[in-house]
Amino acid sequence: MSLNESLDRVLTRYKELESLMSEGGAGGDKIAKLGKEYSDLGPVVEAVKTYRKAQADAQGMADLLADPATDRDMRELAEEEFQELKETLPELERQVQLMLLPKDEADEKNAILEVRAGTGGDEAGLFAADLFRMYQRYAETHRWRFEVMSVNETGIGGYKEAIATISGTDVFARLKFESGVHRVQRIPVTESGGRIHTSAATVAVMPEAEEVDIDIDEKELRIDVFRASGPGGQSVNTTDSAVRITHLPTGLVVIQQDEKSQHKNRAKAMKVLRSRLYERERQIRDDARAAQRKGQVGSGDRSERIRTYNFPQGRVTDHRINLTLHKLDRVMDGDLDELMDALISEDQASRLAEIA
Question: Does the pLDDT at position 355 exceed 80?
Answer without folding.
Answer: no
